[in-house]
Amino acid sequence: xxxxxxxxxxxxxxxxxxxxxxxxxxxVNSEVEKxxxxxxxxxxxxxxxxxxxxxxxxxxxxxxxxxLEIGARGSVKILTLAxxxxxDFINGIxxx
Length: 96
Hints:
By secondary structure, the chain is of the alpha+beta class. The chain has a single domain (2-94), classed as 2-Layer Sandwich (Alpha-Beta Plaits), CATH 3.30.70. It has helices at residues 12-20, 24-34, 60-71, 86-94; strands at residues 2-10, 38-44, 51-57, 76-83. The protein has a 4-stranded antiparallel β-sheet. The two termini are 24 Å apart. The model has no long low-confidence stretch (mean pLDDT 95).
């Protein structure tokens, strides 16, 4: 499975939801798993993003669907990045 990083920023609607029901964060994580992803780790952070989520998915199409499904709800804005293991990155360079 490929690894991805999701950088998430709550919208005002999302912040209100989390304030009223903090457990909603974990509920969304289980929804991600039902869509074919696997949450590896998640952090609440300070700065321009509210959460960093490391997840795995079988392919770009699956993680794109996950990102769009969650983002379409209007509670969060998401930036999704594909992550390449450093050893795989180095080996790819050496193959040239």
